[in-house]
Amino acid sequence: MVKLAIDMMGGDDAPQIVLDAVKKAVNDFSDLEIILFGDEAQCTIQHERVEVRHCTEEITMEDEPVRAIKRKKDSSMVKMAEAVKSGEAEGCVSAGNTGALMSAGLFIVGRIKGVERPALVVTLPTISGKGFVFMDVGANAEAKPEHLLQYAQLGHIYAQKIRGIEHPSVGLLNIGTEAAKGNSLTKKAYGLMAEQQVFKFAGNVEAKGLMQDVADVVVTDGYTGNMILKNLEGVAKSIGKMFKSTLLSSFKNKMAALILRKDLNQLMTKMDYAEYGGSVLLGLNGTVVKAHGSSSAKAFYSAIKQAKIAGEQRIVQTMKETVGAENE
Amino acid sequence: MVKLAIDMMGGDDAPQIVLDAVKKAVNDFSDLEIILFGDEAQCTIQHERVEVRHCTEEITMEDEPVRAIKRKKDSSMVKMAEAVKSGEAEGCVSAGNTGALMSAGLFIVGRIKGVERPALVVTLPTISGKGFVFMDVGANAEAKPEHLLQYAQLGHIYAQKIRGIEHPSVGLLNIGTEAAKGNSLTKKAYGLMAEQQVFKFAGNVEAKGLMQDVADVVVTDGYTGNMILKNLEGVAKSIGKMFKSTLLSSFKNKMAALILRKDLNQLMTKMDYAEYGGSVLLGLNGTVVKAHGSSSAKAFYSAIKQAKIAGEQRIVQTMKETVGAENE
């Protein structure tokens, strides 16, 4: 049995999509229990494995993250994080304010002792459909070489436990493949990764190869990672837009679009990284999953599933034993 | 009359594409003179405004940049750069080894006095077809806030003189639009740019908006810029590949592809940044244009045209007067 804490109030279409996703999840998994935090009056679920806890406040997208976590003590997000902190729940999922959720993770759930900087992880699509684990996508704007090494260790465990890859390769994102390439951060991080024996180091990988299965895990600092993530989103969206206007630009193109519609939709699904679940703040004393703010019920369901697998696989315990202070 | 020095031997398909481009350029522009550096025996041009200078060496893609520039004294690239240094030519164009060309620019052509770090500039496509000036895409892996400010000043002049935009807006690439976002580099650079009065500061711009005309010039450090450039290339190529395989996956899709072919090719052309010319190393005592290694004659021709406009517009003189030590 895995017990998860869930924020009913976070995200553009909350609570509806959260409720739909929770309903489906408890029906699909008989070994899943959920504590739902939010406005009781809006909750439409009655299920023996779903407990609703009423909260009088909610954190909005406009709230300043750290202040919101400190002041809105009876918000659904704070209460959810406290349930993980106390050990009552193994993990939590929210589609709310990303900064606030990261603060809740850091200040309420807390870091694993020995993990210096928890990192934000996403799984991104590749052409083959396999995807890769990418981190840090913005938990820390600045990083030291030792942090990148620790990200790599955390990402390696994540790829093994959540993505089921037995021996994941870990690459260092850089502006060239040779060891001497990059800035002082990547040069030093390369040295640290080349020395260690825990994971298979794939060396430097370039941004142009990211969608071509260059490595199972790709590590970078949070500034660069966030930049690349937003660039990927932006380019995919822009190309999609240009393409759509081409398809609608004439009658004959519209006919061709009709023929292609089903296959193009499949292609778009393959490119949509919400399909791979939410982003995860790794290195904490519990699993904290951020579902996209614009999540559909399906994407939120994926995020719940992800948190459930993390619980089953005891990923936090493994991190404590292999990366954290228990390892020393 | 503008005189340019051109490297006949650089690039995957040299000297053929170089010769084709030069022929077209001297025919199209009656006020253009060219000195062509390379193997005389391979030169097929006889034209009153094209002078061929024989060189016994050439720098290959495998050569280590700095060493190649120092040792291959009779290479076409070194001789070309020397012609700019001496003032004989106003600018130069090569499709050869990028690192070597940057070294030739720095060590032979030389920096404008007062410009601390010359930067590599490209023009990238946007959905509207307008495009934007992006820098530094890799001349310097590390940068200080003052360097970013100087890049902005150089890019501003470039957008005015080469792209003909009267009052170009300059944005700072960052991971959020608020002034306080980013790492210590971008936070300080933001302060410097917000203070100055020379150019219109568009504030922080995000990587997801790059293709949507967020600013006429976007400035970042060379590590991040190179990363974004390669990511753009990689994503566009990967999406293209996935799309192509969808179009070829069935008979009915192939029929639809036939209908769309012409419009899709137009779309690809709009996305191809080689159409906007080469990349330019800004801040030197002469214009140094790098045409893509895999340039077609058409792309090399664009790069020649770019160097010619830079010469006509006296861009180097303007940079000396407004950014360089002559300004102090």
Automatic annotation (TrEMBL), chains A, B:
Known pathway: Lipid metabolism; phospholipid metabolism
EC number: 2.3.1.274
Keywords: Acyltransferase, Cytoplasm, Lipid biosynthesis, Lipid metabolism, Phospholipid biosynthesis, Phospholipid metabolism, Transferase
GO MF term list: phosphate:acyl-[acyl carrier protein] acyltransferase activity
Top-level enzyme category: transferase
Domain of life: Bacteria
Catalytic activities: a fatty acyl-[ACP] + phosphate = an acyl phosphate + holo-[ACP]
Cellular localisation: Cytoplasm
GO biological process: fatty acid biosynthetic process; phospholipid biosynthetic process
GO cellular component: cytoplasm
InterPro entries, per the entry: FA_synthesis, Phospholipid_synth_PlsX-like
Binding partners and assembly: Homodimer. Probably interacts with PlsY.
Family: Belongs to the PlsX family.
Physiological role: Catalyzes the reversible formation of acyl-phosphate (acyl-PO(4)) from acyl-[acyl-carrier-protein] (acyl-ACP). This enzyme utilizes acyl-ACP as fatty acyl donor, but not acyl-CoA.
Record's protein name: Phosphate acyltransferase
Organism: Staphylococcus gallinarum
